Amino acid sequence: MNNKNKNKKIVTSILSASILSLSLGSMSFAATSSVQDLKGVTGQEPIVKLHAQSTTNGVSNTTIASSKTLTQAQASQMIEKAFQVKSKAANPNQKISRERYIDEVMTALETAGNMPAIDVITPHIKDMKKLNPSFLGSVQVAIVLGIVKLDHNQNLNPKKEITRAEANVILNNAVGYLKKIKSDKAAKPKDKGVRIDVLPHEKKVPQPQKNQNSGDMVSESYAAPSNGEKLYVRTVKMALDQYAGQDVKYFVAIDLFSNGTPLETNSKEVQAEVKRLQGLNYDVNVAKAWTYEGNAQKVDYTYVGAYLTADQLEHFKVSTNYGYAFQFASNGDGSPVEGKAGSITGVSDNSNLAD
User: Fold this and answer.
1) One-character DSSP codes across 215-257
2) Which of 6, 65, 100, 345 has the fewest CB atoms found within 10 Å of its own CB?
3) In angstroms, how far apart are the furthest CA atoms of the chain?
4) Structural domain span for residue 278
């Protein structure tokens, strides 16, 4: 699958490459017969484990009402016990949906683990249009990391009220992942990582994602630009401010859209537009980086990359046939893609100034 164009990426993702290489599938817990109402329930072992740790509040010492749904208050209580973090319920007595529960678990996981950023390839979710955009990032990361599984039809059923059994399985997977993170950090104390927010709270509503055969790159969520328009994601704007007045070039990725639809890097339209831009003396070409897709597989992806001055970015000569989004390219571990010497590849400190 290497060297093929890949799906849109999101930076709402977490965890380092070394952590991702650890498979959740290897976790095994010894189930006991202490919980008696689990006949026919998937994921019995994690349910028993959490019940024994008093993370799950059952209706008795031997039953947990696994098919019953949870209120937001009950879910928050479970998450607090599991991660030792605060988890406030917006509507305590209201039943909690699958998407909201996943979001709360992933937010607690990020807080408890203080995890570094990576980019991941968007998993295919058949019923993704039903998802609340505010929860999309958390759900996508949870699926890629194996914390959440889709059903046999590749549906998430985001609006469905989550059952105690489902909640326990997801929570156990997340707790197991947290333990692996802490183990990895103990082994590599110098690997500090980068603190991020799992959720795209400050980002515009993302456009519907494409399937795994698309090749465009998106590091931040934004509304697709209309034909003849251009936009700069937040980090590019910050870099322009940070290096204002300096004689530098910015190494940026350019996402192309046609009538709001993202175009694949290897499409005829994108290839023709790259040639047009080269004819206008822009230093632009197809570039390559790497990322992760499902099951932590490391893969290459291609994108349109360009070295542009601040003036070229500001007065970029767009075509009325396409919309343009400018952002910084990154690899799967969140590191900026290496550019030419002296080029700007991101913002923060001087670490994003290419040697």
Assistant:
1) ----SS--PPPPTT-EEE-HHHHHHHHHTTTS---EEEEEEEE
2) 65
3) 74
4) 230-352
